[in-house]
Amino acid sequence: MCGIVGFFDKAGRPGRPLGATLLGMLDALACRGPDSSGIALWGEPADGLVVRVKMGEGEDALARRPAILREAARQGRVGATETQGALLRLVVAKAEPVELGAAIEAIAPDVEVVSIGRRLEIVKQVGAPANLEVEFGISRRRGTHGLGHTRLSTESRVDLSHSQPFWAHGTADLAIVHNGHITNYHRLRRVYEQEGVRFYTENDSEIIGIYLARKLGEGLSLREALEASLRDLDGSFSYLAATADAFGFAKDPFCLKPLIVSESERAVAVANEEIALQAALPEGYQAREAGGRAVAVWEVPDPASRLGARPRRARSRRRAA
Description:
The protein is α+β, with helices and mostly antiparallel strands. Helix content is 24%, strand content 31%. The chain contains eight helices and 17 strands. A seven-stranded antiparallel sheet has the order 7-2-8-1-14-13-15, covered by helices on one side. Strands 9-10-11-12-16-17 form a six-stranded antiparallel sheet. Strands 4-5-3-6 form a four-stranded antiparallel sheet, covered by helices on one side. β11 (235-242) and β12 form a beta hairpin. α2 packs antiparallel against α3 (97-105). The longest helix has 12 residues, at 206-217. The chain is globular, with a radius of gyration of 18 Å.
């Protein structure tokens, strides 16, 4: 089941109270997924890489904090640090994302980098969306765009690692949320593992971030990567993905998973139930159901202009008969 939401400010205003908007949307979908919840939010660019780290599992997790800071300091200059919930937040200047993540995770098998980005931060936890406010004060967070997820586990474990959003490990500022099933997940996973990719969960959604990261690494745009995923991923699914510069969604060819979209001159709101749009846009809105094979991407406007995002209508393409 699960609930997925996304919100995009077309003016690219990083000061928008986006955390409150996303939290309201997730609260509206809380009944779809009581097991875990999380939010990915793209805010003002930081002076370095913002890193969120799961310090481990069990009572000894907090004891790993000094070791994590020490390893991060070997990769770059460590600025602000803060512990919230089960996550350590730190800002590391002049570091490389892949090397920084690998150095931190080498401390222990249960230490995991949850996100790295100049603009992206992911917070997530086991439990209902209301707990995000208690642990992370998410309603005070600001940004241009964000994603949210509330999970009902149908196959894999219920823990922080299996919670969404998923960061695309190694690729700064790229994250996804997903509802549905990727039925060729096990085959794709075997291929990626043979190439040395590490998986952190048994959740099929994790494959989407890895897939998109590879496509972006090949030089594709986010739109092109989303379109390619409709050819390469099998199953019934809807997912949202975003980078520091763009926000979009893709929907499976069979159109089995709902995805409702509302777009105005000022904003885009997307969710798999309309009740979340009501929470995000209380002043009123028009909504439409995304069709099969639909892909849409909106780009964050240049900070120098901030005249509004370039609107791109979602395209719906039918499979050839």
